[in-house]
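Need tokens for this chain, all 422 residues.
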Amino acid sequence: MAGRFTRPRLVGATENGEIYDHPDLLMVCRRGDETALPGPEELMPLPEESELFLLPGRRALGLDPARGALSETEDLAVAAFPAPGHTLTAHPEYARDADAPVLPLFAYGAVGFASGRLYVCARKVDDDPRQVFRGVDTEVLRRKALDLQNRYPRNRLLRRLTAVCALTYNCPAARNLCLGRYEAPLPVSDSCNARCVGCISLQEGGESGCSAPQKRMTFTPDAGEIVEVMLHHASAETKAPIYSFGQGCEGEPLLRSALIADAVRTFRARGGRGTVNVNSNASLPDAVEEAAEAGITSLRVSLNSADPEAYARYYRPCGYGFGDVRAGIGRAKAAGLFVSLNLLFFPGFSDTEAEYAALADLVRAERVDMLQLRNLNIDPDVYHELMGNAGRGPAMGFPAYRKRLKKECPGLRIGYFNPFLG
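Here are the structure tokens for all 422 residues:
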């Protein structure tokens, strides 16, 4: 929108779900404790395959330019969940009713309307098309999933990935497995050593106020089942195959490090090529070494913050601390693995000065190869309360945050997806 920037108007929705743009009020957005008009550098046209959400119990707020003040409407606030490859730069601002329910575990971007189209507070961080499904016929996908089930009738892992993950949850990784392209998911663990507030597969005791959007796997596949999935994917995706342990439907994969090592050694011994990745919390340094020795290629470490206290508030680790995470990263680098940080980015928190400094120090000290800027899927109010966001200081904004990382951490790749490394 730079060059001929037109301020987007507020987008709201009536109780019956009709979305509209307000004729008089301007779009505002929220970054931490700050409410402001979005700048042109943090807006983009709403990407294809994004989703719009109505926010129950939350009234749309906009700026009345005539009065220079915020104005509350009677209608619902609206947010956007951007397509993969895009990172949010701001959340929607709204007036919250006292009895408003906790929002489901998705990412919520501020939305406005200008020049005949919707805009969202987000930026594209990765051009990889692996999770673009435009033009993919759903019936073709269903037939391919059923064909895999018939082809490997005794493989419990493949049945779950097709029947549950691909056809029920519409998991992009599982759908790609069915289509024989890009990155294949390999969930292996039904347990975890963290109790993440925003865990999408298991919510215990209703502590977060909402339920998990999917159910965690309830069995542990054997090495033969894992290798069978890997070899199938290798035969289908012959150009740049990626295989990833550690998915949203499971716990911590390194709790099954012996199983991972057994499967990977067998896969490599049978001529298996491509990038074998583990998405993990890296809390078990010995397990990292075991997987590396077996032949994995890369480790992606998820974290919401490089500050130990903020990390512990969200991850609620069981039997480990942030020092173990750093040690796991160090062991991975010493073993020659490509290491990515999967940063769960939250506008107004992640881009504050203190959070930036902690992350940049971790990247430089541990020689991290890549930063994947993923969105933290959580009700913004829940996270603000959890982190005690008041008093953290102003956010620099996502564009400045990314620019500083590129300048101050030379050689650091910034993206969204696990890269193919050969």
